[in-house]
Amino acid sequence: MIQFEKDGAIQTKVRHRTPMVSVPKIKRKLASQQKKGECGFSSPEPDNQDSSGSEAQLLKHNTRIRKKGTDLGELQSAIESIKETQEDIKRDIMALRNRVTSNLPPLDNNFLQLKHYVFILLLVLLQFIVNFLFK
User: Fold this and answer.
1) Distance between CA 38 and CA 47 in Å, rounded?
2) Residue 135's pLDDT band (boundaries 50, 70, 90)?
3) b vs e for 18-39, b when ≥16 Cβ sit within 10 Å of the residue's Cβ?
4) Coiled-coil intervals in this record (predicted)?
5) By C-alpha distance, which of 35, 18, 14, 98 is closest to 90?
6) Does 111 or 4 have the greater pLDDT score?
7) Distances 59 to 33, 43, 81, 87 between C-alpha atoms, Å
């Protein structure tokens, strides 16, 4: 989108890009229909390819199947690796939780300990001294 001024008026030009048409998908669909022997018409289409062309298509198809098989194997091994890593992390988290809960000091029924009472007593004494000096 481009905006510009022409003769005192603001003009806008929009450039739309047309989407690319994916041709390989259409070829694959036609190739699979030809292998089935039916093209969706009431009468069969004449075969314009010679036997070497169909062998080349079969070779390409077999190559694609092998590639998909290896890709599937790679994906499965990656998923297994991720699962193993998740199990390791889960075990580590459980070990850390057990370590943290075992190191907690036992809860005392005494809400305030002796150091708290001493601190409060010092604050009260300081308050008395401040009141006595500024009185």
Assistant:
1) 12
2) confident
3) eeeeeeeeeeeeeeeebeeeee
4) 72-99
5) 98
6) 4
7) 17, 28, 33, 42
Q: Which amino acid is at 100?
A: V
Residue 128 has pLDDT above 60, yes or no: yes
Q: How confident is the model at residue 24 (pLDDT cuts 50, 70, 90)?
A: low
- Please identify which residue in the block is written with the tokens 């699979």: 32
pLDDT for position 40: 47
Instruction: State the SS3 of the chain.
Output: CEEEEECCEEEEECCCCCCCCCHHHHHHHHHHHHHHCCCCCCCCCCCCCCHHHHHHHHHHHHHHHHHHHHHHHHHHHHHHHHHHHHHHHHHHHHHHHHHHHHCCCCCCCCCCCHHHHHHHHHHHHHHHHHHHHCC
Q: Which two tokens stand for residue 76?
A: 């499965």
Cβ atoms of residues 39 and 45 within 8 Å: yes
**Is the pLDDT confidence value at 45 over 70?**
no
